[in-house]
Design goal:
Helices cover 33% and strands 28% of the residues. A nine-stranded mixed sheet has the order 3-4-2-1-5-6-7-11-8, with helices on both faces. A two-stranded antiparallel sheet has the order 9-10. Strand 9 and strand 10 (234-243) form a beta hairpin. By secondary structure, the chain is of the alpha/beta class.
C-alpha cells in the first residue's frame, strides 16, 4: 500500500471516528434530556418574592430537575384565574449574575400560560408549581387565590400542578419548600395525578401533623367598609376584614387552624352534578 493510500485510509478512519463520537454524544444528550423533569415555577406575589426564590432553590436541588420561572412582574394577590388582554411584556430577570426567570406584566395565569406555551414549546414541562404564597389559601378563599389560579392554568394547558401556601408569620419557609419538594419527588417516581391541583397549606407555629381534607369554610371575611375619603360624589372605602375560626372539623380550614398541614385535591370542573336532574324538571322554555 502506498503512502497516499495510507493517508486516505487514516483520513477515512478519522472521519468515521468523529462521526461515531458525535452520534454517541447526541444519543447521550438525548438520554439526559429525556431524564430531565421540567418544572414551571410561578406565584401570585410577584417574581421578587423571596419565598419563590427559596422554593426554586429547593426544587432545583432535586436530581434530574430543571426549574424555569415565569412569574408576575408585580404582586397579583387575589387575582384568581383572571387574565390580561393586549400585548404581554416579558423581561428576563437576573440575580447574582444568573438568570432568575421571566417577569411577566400580567396575572399569574398569564405568566403560567406564557411559560407553558412559549418557554415549553420545544421541551414541554412536566409540572407546574405555584408558590410559595404568603397567606393561607384554604377553603373558599381558594376561589380568590392567584396562587391557585396559576396552578389551575396548568390544568387548562394539560399539565398537572401544585399550589403551595403558608401562614404569614411563625413558619419556616425552607421547611415548606422541602415539603413541596417531597411531593414533587413522589410525582417524579410514580407519576402526577392528571387533571388535579394539589393545594398545600402550611400553618405557622408548632405543626400537629398532616391531613388530606376537602375544601370548606372561609376564614377571612369582610366585616365592613370604612369610609376614608369623600369628595362630592366620589367616595373612597377601605375594606375591613376579620379572621373567623372554623367550627366544621370536616374542612381544610378547620384542620389548618388546628395546626395541621393540609393537602386538598382540586378540580377544574365546578359543575354541581347533584342538581342537574332537578333542573330538568324546571320546565324552562325559550322566550320570544
Amino acid at each position: 500500500m502506498s503512502l497516499t493510500d495510507n493517508n486516505l485510509t487514516n483520513k477515512v478512519i478519522g472521519n468515521l471516528t468523529r462521526v461515531l463520537l458525535l452520534l454517541i454524544f447526541l444519543q447521550a444528550s438525548s438520554y439526559v434530556a429525556a431524564q430531565t423533569y421540567r418544572i414551571l415555577l410561578s406565584n401570585d406575589d410577584g417574581i421578587s418574592s423571596p419565598l419563590l426564590h427559596i422554593l426554586k432553590q429547593e426544587l432545583a436541588a432535586l436530581p434530574g430537575v430543571e426549574v424555569v420561572v415565569s412569574a408576575p412582574a408585580e404582586n397579583q394577590s387575589g387575582s384568581s384565574h383572571s387574565t390580561e388582554g393586549g400585548p404581554l411584556i416579558v423581561e428576563r430577570i437576573y440575580q447574582d449574575g444568573e438568570l432568575l426567570g421571566h417577569s411577566v406584566a400580567g396575572k399569574p395565569s398569564d405568566a403560567v400560560r406564557f411559560g407553558l406555551v412559549e418557554l415549553g414549546k420545544d421541551v414541554p414541562f412536566d409540572l407546574v408549581v405555584s408558590g410559595i404564597n404568603r397567606g393561607a389559601n384554604v377553603g373558599n378563599i381558594s376561589h380568590l387565590s392567584g396562587t391557585v389560579g396559576a396552578a389551575m392554568e396548568g390544568l387548562l394547558q394539560g399539565v398537572p400542578a401544585i399550589a403551595v401556601s403558608q401562614d404569614i408569620t411563625d413558619v419556616d419557609t425552607v421547611s415548606s419548600a422541602r415539603f413541596t419538594a417531597q411531593l414533587v419527588t413522589r410525582y417524579m417516581e410514580s407519576g402526577a395525578p392528571q387533571g388535579t391541583v394539589i393545594s398545600i397549606n402550611i400553618p405557622g407555629g408548632e405543626l400537629q401533623g398532616l391531613k388530606i381534607m376537602p375544601m370548606g369554610d372561609s376564614y377571612l371575611q369582610t366585616s365592613h367598609y370604612e369610609l376614608v375619603e369623600q369628595t362630592g360624589e366620589r367616595s373612597v372605602y377601605e375594606r375591613q376584614r376579620v379572621i373567623v375560626q372554623s367550627q366544621d372539623n370536616s374542612t381544610d380550614t378547620y384542620a389548618y387552624q388546628q395546626g395541621y398541614i393540609t393537602l386538598t385535591p382540586l378540580k377544574f370542573d365546578w359543575t354541581d352534578r347533584d342538581i342537574m336532574d332537578q333542573m330538568e324538571s324546571w320546565n324552562l322554555q325559550l322566550t320570544n
